[in-house]
Amino acid sequence: MDGDWWVLVLAALPVVALLVAVVVRGRQAGGDPQTLAADPEDRPVPAVVANPTKIEPGTRKRIDAVCTGLGWAEPLWLETTVEDPGTGQARHAIERGADVVLACGGDGTVRAVAEGLAGTGVAMGLVPAGTGNLLARTIGTPDSVAAAVRVALTGDDRKIDVGRVRVDGAEHEHVFLVMAGTGFDAAIMQSTPEALKVKVGPLAYVISGLRAMRGRRTRVTLTFDDGPPQRRRIRTVVVGNSGTLLGGLVLMPRATVDDGVLDVVSIAPNSIAGWIAVAWRVITKQRRGHQRVEHWQARSIVIRADVPQPSQLDGDPIGDAQELSIQVDPAALVMRVAPVPPTDAPDPG
């Protein structure tokens, strides 16, 4: 056997030559030889569902560069349309074998993509490009396109709850990830012109809110889980998977995106003084501040108004609705989030 060592050497020469060629090509390209030598079909596949009205010139090139630079395949690029704001594109991405689907747009695009991904186990990443970007702010997604894409491709998986809504008894369910509401808040979303949002950003909602403050209260019936119906006169009822508003203001202090329940708040001021008290409660993150602010937590909620009211899902107006039947779908969506450093990690400063 010792005399046959040269036979083993000769047999190994083709393998050695192949490895040397891979290293040389990798060094010439200035990257990782193992990544660059991988066949395209062996690389993980990202998909981007993009709202073309929200993204800036050059965004696609930046996303492509990050994906290929991290050893992923060039992303499958799917644009939303008026007829399909993202749900169909997300499902198509799954059919094409996407390993992660990035929602590139505002909260409406994120919600539509989530509707296609919820329950599938395919991870969802965010590239914030809207006015509010509430879910992105809640889970800590960076504002930078390149940084957000890196998180989507290399971050940790976090399962979050999804709210499911039936409007006026319809068979089709909608989803929301942040908040659903009826009354004053939805009227603000409905009356805020898109052109104003482009011009002044989140301030557009403040302007519309000031205009809507003088509206009248309406009567609603609220039912939580298997509890008895409760009658209220309200200006708005909001059901939240997350309780954080623009500017870091907290409407529902106990709300968490992965606690398996939904938070509910009803607001019923009948004067400017009442609105000031409500605003103070939100600013100070207190559960008390006005006698007409009430909080609940539940897994299922039914809101039925005596007359149809403006309604919204994650900031998207859905028209007037008389009944919203809402339930939580726990841990239904896999979100890609920035890794959490160990608690005993050394201070980088």
From TrEMBL:
<keyword id="KW-0472">Membrane</keyword>
<dbReference type="InterPro" id="IPR045540">
    <property type="entry name" value="YegS/DAGK_C"/>
</dbReference>
<keyword id="KW-0594">Phospholipid biosynthesis</keyword>
<dbReference type="InterPro" id="IPR016064">
    <property type="entry name" value="NAD/diacylglycerol_kinase_sf"/>
</dbReference>
<keyword id="KW-0547">Nucleotide-binding</keyword>
<keyword id="KW-0443">Lipid metabolism</keyword>
<protein>
    <submittedName>
        <fullName>Diacylglycerol/lipid kinase family protein</fullName>
        <ecNumber>2.7.1.-</ecNumber>
    </submittedName>
</protein>
<feature type="transmembrane region" description="Helical">
    <location>
        <begin position="264"/>
        <end position="283"/>
    </location>
</feature>
<keyword id="KW-0812">Transmembrane</keyword>
<keyword id="KW-1133">Transmembrane helix</keyword>
<dbReference type="Pfam" id="PF00781">
    <property type="entry name" value="DAGK_cat"/>
</dbReference>
<keyword id="KW-1208">Phospholipid metabolism</keyword>
<dbReference type="InterPro" id="IPR001206">
    <property type="entry name" value="Diacylglycerol_kinase_cat_dom"/>
</dbReference>
<comment type="similarity">
    <text>Belongs to the diacylglycerol/lipid kinase family.</text>
</comment>
<dbReference type="InterPro" id="IPR017438">
    <property type="entry name" value="ATP-NAD_kinase_N"/>
</dbReference>
<dbReference type="Pfam" id="PF19279">
    <property type="entry name" value="YegS_C"/>
</dbReference>
<dbReference type="GO" id="GO:0016301">
    <property type="term" value="F:kinase activity"/>
</dbReference>
<dbReference type="InterPro" id="IPR050187">
    <property type="entry name" value="Lipid_Phosphate_FormReg"/>
</dbReference>
<keyword id="KW-0067">ATP-binding</keyword>
<keyword id="KW-0418">Kinase</keyword>
<feature type="transmembrane region" description="Helical">
    <location>
        <begin position="234"/>
        <end position="252"/>
    </location>
</feature>
<keyword id="KW-0808">Transferase</keyword>
<keyword id="KW-0444">Lipid biosynthesis</keyword>
<feature type="domain" description="DAGKc">
    <location>
        <begin position="41"/>
        <end position="169"/>
    </location>
</feature>
<feature type="transmembrane region" description="Helical">
    <location>
        <begin position="6"/>
        <end position="24"/>
    </location>
</feature>
